[in-house]
Fold this sequence. Notes:
Elements: H1 3-12, H2 18-30, H3 34-45, H4 49-56, E1 66-70, H5 78-81, H6 102-122, E2 130-135, H7 141-154, E3 158-162, H8 168-178, E4 182-186, E5 195-202, H9 212-222, E6 239-242, H10 244-255, H11 267-270, E7 273-277, H12 283-294, E8 297-300, H13 302-305, H14 326-335, E9 339-343, E10 350-355, E11 361-363, H15 366-383, E12 395-400, H16 406-414, E13 417-421, H17 425-437, H18 441-446, H19 452-462, E14 465-471, E15 475-477, H20 487-503, H21 508-519, E16 521-530, H22 533-549, E17 554-555, E18 558-565, E19 585-589, E20 594-599, E21 605-614, H23 624-653
Parallel strand pairs: 2-3, 2-4, 3-6, 7-8, 7-9, 12-13, 12-14
Antiparallel strand pairs: 1-5, 4-5, 9-10, 10-11, 14-15, 16-21, 17-18, 18-19, 19-20, 20-21
Helix pairs in contact: 2-4, 6-7, 6-9, 12-20, 15-16
Amino acid sequence: MDLDATLQAAAQRGALLASSLQNIRALLAASSQPLYLQAVEQLAEGGHWEELNDRFYQTLKFGTGGLRGRTIGRVVSAAERGNAAEGQPPEHPCVGTNSMNYYNIARATRGLVAYLRAWRANSGQSQLPAIVISHDTRLFSAEFARFAARVACENGANVHLVEECRATPLMSYAVRQLGADAGIMITASHNPPHDNGYKVNFNDGAGIVEPHASGIIAEVNRIVEESWQPLPQEQQGRIQPLGAAMDESYLARVQAMMLRPELLQDPAARRLKLVFTALHGTGGVMVPELLRRLGFSFSTVAAQDVRDGRFPTVKSPNPENAPALQMAVDQAQQEGADIIIGTDPDCDRMGVGCRDGQGHMQLLTGNQTGALMAWYRLKTLTETGVLNPANRQRAVILKTFVTTPMLDAMAAAFGVRCINTLTGFKWISAKLAKYEDALPADIRAQYRGMDAAASRAARLEHSHFLVFGGEESYGYMGDDFSRDKDGNAAVVMFAELAAYAASRGLTVPGLLDEIYSGIGYFLEINHSKVFEGASGAASIARLADSYGSNPPTEVDGVAVASVRDFRKPGILDEEGQAVATEKMLFVDLADGRSFAVRPSGTEPKIKYYLFARRCPAAGASLSAGELTQAKSEVRASLDSLWQWLQGDIDRRLA
């Protein structure tokens, strides 16, 4: 076939986007790889124009978090399938400028190394930059990690390569401990099996923010050619394996997060039984070891211990979704276990379920789980005197704007501050970087090597101490030795909370109700609308922009009290610091309900966050009957709000 004529004809009749045609031509002209030509020819011959558009309508954008996209197409060409047996993953990742493949891994790595080399030179540092590279259990993750390491070395960077799969927070911790300039994690977190990603953290171990974000993005975008000429051998970097010693150092810090290890001497707490599932991911590497060291009674879901990027036992490896935890629930029923815990493939998120007073297994939301852990840590640190009237104003809870306002109320009740950030743990970690920079120079110089007690004392005396950090999407942090949300640490925090409840003769849901009675009942319901592919991206952009250009004045029959448009500068956080702009709108209604809307930064969806509450009068608490009534009324009010919003979505896209 005359491929170019076929593509041109498809473009003329509107089947192939002009941008897709341009990107296909550019890729094929710049590459000698037969795989690329064969894959495009086979898709064109089959008339798979929508597939070609999804793969080529743009060059996969390197955003502030890195890259994320499909590494296996909806339609897999014979060339990509290669020698893979029927029913097995393809031999080669998906061909396309908008796909997660070696082409885009090379672009991202070359751009990152170029930025780091220039940044070090501008700082007067002559050594080669150092990068920590790690990966999860996803399809092609190990191959992408090794490839990124080679590209980085050939372009003049040293690499600390984590050769076996590990959790994202270990990469962050290793960057800090080694004094590396950046970290790369090959992961798409909890996305479906066909996706993969490339996550970049900077030298503080946290996700990149300005000014580095724009600088790295600019360097990546400058690279259009596929091939590169390696530097002379003497100018190249070296690859060093990173293994057991770093694992043990990290495990010790996570283990130290249990505030009261003596809890497990209580007979009721010792009887607590847990079921853990890694959902085929990296949580299986360290979580069982942590639970064993701490003395918890637990079992694992054997079928989901298997590290398999196809995630064969679940539709989606996301502990936010109830079906992902069903095997753990079933095992808990068989074993009479009290708690189930699951982590996502790169073990930075955690979902839980707990048996209630009637013996039913109840899955908690990310907001409920975070509120429980924050409350327990505030209470315990106060009771043990770590937090006291002299220092508690230096203690903080960090959360995102779309995370439950129950944390704001809780912080106020304990006399500590709660600071809100934009969505994404990089913004929480940016606050931690600010607090670390506020330490005296002599303490700051040795800060990363301090143990937990010394680090906490330094922050409470000289800067700000993180009690808890959390976001509604099941991400949590209980200390700042790693600068990313941490599923390993979250398991330790939640298991301790469950042991505390058991020691008091309470179920975890029973303890949550006790907290609600004192602080108030808060409910948050999250929804999303999925729009996939090139056309879907356009729909998401149009819908998101419509809220900024035409914000609502009345919602569900209730007047809008205020609108916060985060696309516009001028919004300040609780510390008086300007919040970066983001495509997010927050709408507060006159009856106390509110909602936020924002496009996802990692998935083809637009997200809606709905909030409502019922609080007791000052100095009072909600009785059991009042709490039951509050739960019913608040839920009905948010169901009504979502019904209205769905109609509004249709109207905005009409």
